[in-house]
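Pipeline run #58 for the internal structure catalog. This entry was flagged by the ingest filter as a single-chain record with no existing model, so it goes straight to prediction. Upstream metadata was stripped on purpose; only the residue string is passed forward. Reviewer on rotation: M.T. Logging verbosity set to normal.
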Amino acid sequence: MEHYFTRLISKPRERITHQLSGEGNTLKTRQCSELAVSLCISLVFLLSVFASVLLHQAYSAPSITSMPAMKGMTVNAWSVEAYSTSDFDQSITNLFNAKANWALFTVFWFMETSTSVEIHPRYDLYSASNSSLTHAIQKAHELGMKVSLKPMVDVVDGTWRGQINPSSWATWFTSYRYFIHDFAQLAEANDVELCVVGTELKSSQSYESSWRQVISETRAVFSEELTYAANWDSYGTSQVKFWDALDYVGVDAYFPLTNSFDPTVAQLKNGWSYGPSGRNWTNELYMAYTATGKQVVFTEIGYVSKNGTNTRPWDWNVSSALDLQEQADCYQAALDVFRDRTWFGGWFWWNWETDPNAGGPTEMHYTPQNKPAEIVLHQYYSEVRDLAVTNVLVSRTVVGSGLSMTINVTVENHGVFTEAFDLTVYVNSTVIETETVTLQTGMSRLISCRWNTSGFEKGRYTVSAYAWPLSGELDITDNTYVGGNVTVAMVGDVTGLIPYEPDGKVDVRDLAFVAKHYGASAPPAPVNFDIIDDRKIDIKDLALMAKNYGKTDP
């Protein structure tokens, strides 16, 4: 409201100060009356635009979605007490300052070989103690973050967990249920908001009834939400038949994006829809959502700081060449592609270390810490979305009835995303034009439209522009700009007793002013004398004036 009134009142106030200096009392009275009329018109305009805004929002505004709820990160402890150190406290604080609102804590238990049936902790490796895990959860909650707990199975002999083949699946599931039950109780006791009941256990997924038992027993002791973290190549409803028992479709999203070791951000974004094998990863994820009715969450997604990481994101040894920029570009692509998908719940990036000094300019592994990727993450997680209309210029302040004039609007993107939005130009409350604008971060654009005054009554009109707010845009005071007044008058009525103000008749005064600037360009000559609005004052302008010479508005 303050923004509107400041712009509406400041110009009339300046005009009357100028007019009252050195003028007669009669003229002062007339000007004060004109000012009162102008202010009344402006107030009517203000109410009309507000009504128009409400109607646009209610009936015709494009559907805009908010950023996914889970702006998360996976945090790993590689020693038994790593979660309880002062380094961890600083590291999780750094993650919070990067604007992550979720922390996913992993905890690893082990099988000795791929055929083992027992799952147990190995504190001599990197199983975290329950006390350190409790400290981590409490610290994240103190910072205002939500927490997910992800118990995971690793195999001592190096077999990938998705390829295990226990000698007895029944015995293995008995051990696994104990493992998950233990941490589900810890999660419940510490108000954890989301628990992951399994991760990438691809070879076990066909045992549907066993998984339903795991989920049922977990729900018996844990009251919040559950998911399963399926590998990127095995999350479909034909491969995970128990999604209906869970709250989210969890995917560890290591999808290959291109075959290039030097891709652009645009190519990486395109790779989510047209991958190197011709697969449309985004559409397939959406189909999982439509088949289950559950939002998709990236329970893991990550890229090493190496050249070619986008080609095999799961491969930490994809090459030996450092490439911090490709990692950052992969982050940007995934954040940009999924940030506005209503069916997408969020990201848990792999990974954040308990060491606050991890990462850095020469480190090649997955962490984004102290690398360009962290900057990208912070920008997107901050959700800075801000449009500003910074100027509205009219090609003239007087236009002949039935003629056209130009309105120029400057709009800027002060946010961190490339944005597509609607920009509407108004004359009073009448929409002159609405244009969909796409604008990159930090850029401005000049939008021009023509106002044909046919059908408008003669009188004074206020011109404004409005950039329709983005979802999550906090500062909308600069989304509106009121550019000033334009008078629609009889063609040729360009001046009167008050210079450049129409007086309701076309007479020798109008003719003399136009003739004085005959042959000049407008501007620098007064633009109101360029009646036809072709940027020059010539015989065409005089001819239009001559048609109404001697006439007076009724």
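catalog note: The CA atoms of residues 244 and 292 lie 6 Å apart.
catalog note: The longest strand covers residues 102-111.
status: ready for reviewer M.T.
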